[in-house]
Amino acid sequence: MQHISKYFISIGLLFFVFQTNSQEEVKDSIAKNSIQRVDSIIYKEPYGLRIGVDISKPILHQFNNKYNGLEFVTDYRISKRLYVAAEFGFEEEKSNEDFTNSTASGNYARIGVNYNQFNNWLDMNNELFIGFRYGYARFKQTLHSYTPNVTDAQNGIYFPIEEVFIDETTEGLNAHWLELVIGVKVEVYHNLFLSLSGAYKIIVNTKDPEGFTSLFSPGFNRIFESNTGFGFNYSISYLIPLKKK
């Protein structure tokens, strides 16, 4: 009888030890799985279409009645840092020079890419970008008046006081150019962005009126003698998230 009691006590101790070890293994397995699940959580960034408007142009119109314009902006994210971007709109500007008075007006579009060089923290979508654009404008130009130069043997070339008023409009003009763009884009609220950028522009080709050089092209701004120009954009836009990855 004493041997039987020892036998059952030994079996009970073995069962207790086995049960304890099993519970510890289960706890370790649960803990490891939990750590793996935590480690496997990856933040997915939003990809989608962002659309907006350049608010600097209506503001400029309020302070300069010789200018009027409206520009829409858009971009679409195609990879972690690369965006396809475009701007399109309408502009009109009166140019008063020393010897000419003209107005150019028409539509334009710019298309290209932006590359974000900013390393965002988790759940941030800000940008410090550099971009390139190809621009095209189709416009008309009205020469309101000009002061012609006159050549004679005594005075050489000079501009007389008389101003010639003609109001002659030439349609079907166009301009092609390239741009280098640098800017920042900040998410000020969920999916709402403010952007500030500047652009250096180079004219590739223009179709000018006969006997007169275009001084302004929609989308390009003032055309200098070097066929270069500068642009400025201050826009507000909203991201329509289409997917996350």
Architecture blueprint of SSEs:
Layout: H1 2-39, E1 46-54, H2 56-63, E2 67-77, E3 82-96, E4 100-116, E5 127-146, E6 150-152, E7 156-158, E8 164-189, E9 192-207, E10 216-217, E11 221-222, E12 228-244
Antiparallel strand pairs: 1-2, 1-12, 2-3, 3-4, 4-5, 5-8, 6-7, 8-9, 9-12, 10-11
Descriptive notes:
The chain is α+β, with helices and mostly antiparallel strands. It has two domains: 41 residues; 199 residues, Beta Barrel (Porin). The chain contains two helices and twelve strands. The strands form three sheets. It has an eight-stranded antiparallel β-barrel with strand order 1-2-3-4-5-8-9-12. The longest helix has 38 residues. The N terminus is likely disordered.
For the structure shown, list the relevant keywords.
Porin, 2 domains, two-stranded antiparallel ribbon, about 240 residues, 2 helices
Residue fraction in strands: over 45%
Give the averaged pLDDT, no decimals: 83
Q: Which CATH architecture of the largest domain would you pick?
A: Beta Barrel
Q: Please describe the biggest sheet, giving its number of strands, its sense, and whether it closes into a barrel.
A: 8 strands, antiparallel, barrel
CATH C-level category of the largest domain: Mainly Beta
The low-pLDDT segments are: 1-5, 13-18, 34-39
Give the helices and strands as they follow along the chain.
HEHEEEEEEEEEEE
Using the coordinates shown, work out and report the CATH topology of the largest domain: Porin
> Nearest-angstrom radius of gyration?
34 Å
The beta-strand count equals 12
Number of domains in the coordinates? 2
| Overall outline | elongated
Separation, N- and C-terminal Cα atoms? 72 Å
- As laid out across the biggest beta sheet, the strand order is 1-2-3-4-5-8-9-12
Q: Provide the helix percentage.
A: 10-25%
By DSSP (H or I, 4+ residues per run), the number of helices equals 2
